[in-house]
Amino acid sequence: MQGSEARSDTESTNPILQLHQFSLRFRGHPEPAVDGLNLSVSAGETLCIVGESGCGKSVSAMALMGLLPQDIIDIPNGQMDFEGHRYDLRSDGLDASTRGDRMAMIFQEPMTSLNPAFRIGDQIAEAVLHHRNCTRTEATESALQMLRRVGIPAPQQRLREYPHQLSGGMRQRVMIAMALINNPSFLIADEPTTALDVTIQAQILDLIRELQSETGMGTLFITHDLGVVAEIATNVAVMYGGQIVESGPVGAVFDDPQHPYTIGLMSSVPRMSGSRDRLITVPGTVPSLADMPQGCRFRTRCPFATDNCAARPALSDVGPDHAVACHYAPLEQQDEVRCAM
Amino acid sequence: MRDVILEARDLTRHFTLGGGLFEPKTKVRAVDGVSLTVNRGETFAIVGESGCGKSTLARLMMRLDRPTSGQVLFNGQEVQDLARRDMAPLRRDMQFVFQDPFSSLNPRMTVGKLVGEPLEVHAPELDADTRREKVAALLAQVGLLPDHANRYPHEFSGGQRQRIGIARALASGPRLLIGDEPVSALDVSVQAQVVNLLNDLKQDLDLTLVIIAHDLAVIRHMSDRIAVMYLGQVVESGPADQVFDAPRHPYTHALLSAIPEPEPGRVHNQLTLKGEMPSPSNPPAGCRFHTRCPFAQDNCRTHTPLLDAADTDHQVACHHWKTIPEAGKPAPPRRRSVGAEERFALYRAALQTTQASATHREETS
User: Fold this and answer.
1) B331: chain A residues, CB-CB within 8 Å
2) What is the pLDDT of residue A122?
3) H or E element in which residue B162 lies
4) A229 to chain B nearest CA, in Å?
5) Per-residue pLDDT tens digits for A263-285
6) What value does the mean pLDDT take over residues B158-164?
7) Any idea of the CA torsion for A67, A72, A76, A78, to the nearest 10 degrees?
8) B80 pLDDT exceeds 60?
9) Domain ranges across chain B
10) B316 — contact with chain A (CB < 8 Å)?
11) How far is B50 from chain A (nearest CA, A)?
12) Which of B144, B154, B162, B187 is the best mutation test for A, with the most CBs of A within 10 A?
């Protein structure tokens, strides 16, 4: 088994979506913003991509959905296997008939993603009309059912309302209804709860989990919140500077984190119980794309970095399906690291 | 005797909306009868979800806005009666740190100018050279370099910009710093840096901090006392340890238990709330939380509960706090694998070594 894949599926389950060696550049920047990404998601699983702003998590998702115009990005490398079809991402992304039908996406800010000038019901029905051969009445009927499924009270009345009449949590439910109305086998959720209050976030996470167990869809969930990851993920991929630095089943990554960045990130998160001591941080900030170091991209902020880190570390297995890209993993067994203390 | 630096007495702030040709006027009760005291030298946190009135409360306490009724006292002096020309000392002693480091700094001013501006206002006697020195000292205090003074805000990352905002707030030598979501726009690793910085500054400069936030884990790390707001009112207040470990108001319990913890499989003592916060323009009668409260009874719908002392300095506004089940203390974080615990210790040690050598380099250069 290759160590370079973010996966934990047993041999029996077939991945719904696999991404091979996906790289992406912004035009005008020679350094890749996403560099050699491999992902694999099976039915009913949730793969969380976690990382800080600028790590390439959102832009990857947008590119997979074929939502980025060719004049701002360049994809030098990458293939995607989705539902038995291989897409060469260099030339053709997801086609318009698959997008929104078999693969759907929900976004962070439901207010800017919904059209303020159209009624909720019409916006949801549009997704059906676009992909199915049916009448407007049928489409509206399925929109109504979908609103009911995502737990919107008084759905009949809501159909005729505009986005501004709904609260943030309700808008996100509408977004989810719109994404799932065609029964996609794969859902991309880009920070769907970041703009919401915690009590509403808990409701939306429950809803996504529930719908996922009903439909068995695979989910790629993008977030920066390790708490949300722990709640919803089957597998995790930690990204830094456009590369996966650690990946594996959620239990393994949280219980046995190996990469210094993962360790730093986890130490930075204040907890609701236990010690209230000074937080241990990751020093410095993420370098801009132009200043990204060669080799291990984390080495400018890593307290363990040595000259060896100028060579890029490969993702290699440290446990079942648990892979890490660090020359010094596991840290506690490296004499060099111990002696430096 | 407690030394109170800031006090709010029965503050209300109502906004009037609408009143157009066909639209009836509606009154939004953003802050509705809030009383609280902030002691000198502590970190006081105001928490609540969006729309609970916490930012309006902060603006009232800063006198960036005037209350509909009630009083704000700073060092025992009423602030809303002050004439414009008498405000300078107040502005000097009380400063604000804003949420968004991208929109709160003038993009056309250099960092030196931004941080020096409050000095020009509050210490006009300083000559340009002394002011420059003072700016350099302020930048050093927040962890920036002296030559950053010549750069513009767009050249900095979010965390660095928030440091600039803090340096600017510190320039006048304030006694009290009010931060409205000072770290919520930042990435986790940078957020932790700024939380540490604020804690250090508080110690070093003997500051009092008032922090407005929705992130309860951050609040738990920073504050000595907290007040929880719901729909314009304080529902629970008290020492942070007590409120976090033994919340007595069902809303506080629900809020605390809704926070996802970075620990897969952690069992939550979760109290899930149905529905959403009602609009502050039409708050429910009686206890404002009764529409979402799983323990609501008849008298909650008709009678407004007053803040009741659950313990010394711990107050709760609920008719039934004595009889509803206690939330129970949250379990301590689970220990990670042996190897991982060793790695975290190594990481901590390595950071200290690198930081120590960095300071050493700075001192020798």
Assistant:
1) 273
2) 94
3) helix B158-170
4) 7
5) 999 999 999 888 888 899 998 88
6) 90
7) -10
8) yes
9) 4-223, 233-316, 338-365
10) no
11) 7
12) B187
**Cα four-point dihedral sign A250, A254, A259, A265:** positive
pLDDT for res B315? 95
pLDDT, average across residues B131-158: 91
Whole-angstrom distance, CA of residue A3 vs CA of residue A5: 6
ipTM for the complex shown: 0.87
From B52, B68, B15, B80, select the one nearest B212 (Cα to Cα).
Answer: B52
Q: Round the average pLDDT of chain B to a whole number and report it.
A: 89
Q: Which CATH class is domain B4-223?
A: alpha beta
Cβ proximity of A173 and B243 under 8 Å: no
CA-based nearest residue in chain B for residue A200: B276
Domain with CATH 3.40.50.300 in chain A: 15-101+186-340
Amino acid at B137: A
Residues 317-356 of B with CB under 8 A from A: 329-333, 336-337, 339-340, 342-344, 346-351, 353-355
Alpha helices in chain A (DSSP H): 57-64, 110-113, 120-131, 136-149, 155-158, 168-180, 198-215, 226-232, 250-255, 260-268, 335-340
Place B358 in a pLDDT band, splitting at 50, 70 and 90. Answer: low
Rounded to a whole number of angstroms, the distance between the first and last alpha carbons of chain A is 35
Q: What are phi and psi of B213, to 5 degrees?
A: -160, 160
CATH architecture of the region A15-101+186-340? 3-Layer(aba) Sandwich (3.40)
Tokens 């000292």 locate to B137
pLDDT at A48 over 80: yes
The structure tokens listed for B118 are 């409050």
User: Which residues 35-74 of chain B have a CB within 8 Å of chain A?
Assistant: 49-50
Q: Is the peptide bond before A330 cis (omega within 30 degrees of 0)?
A: yes
Say yes or no to pLDDT of A11 above 80.
Answer: no
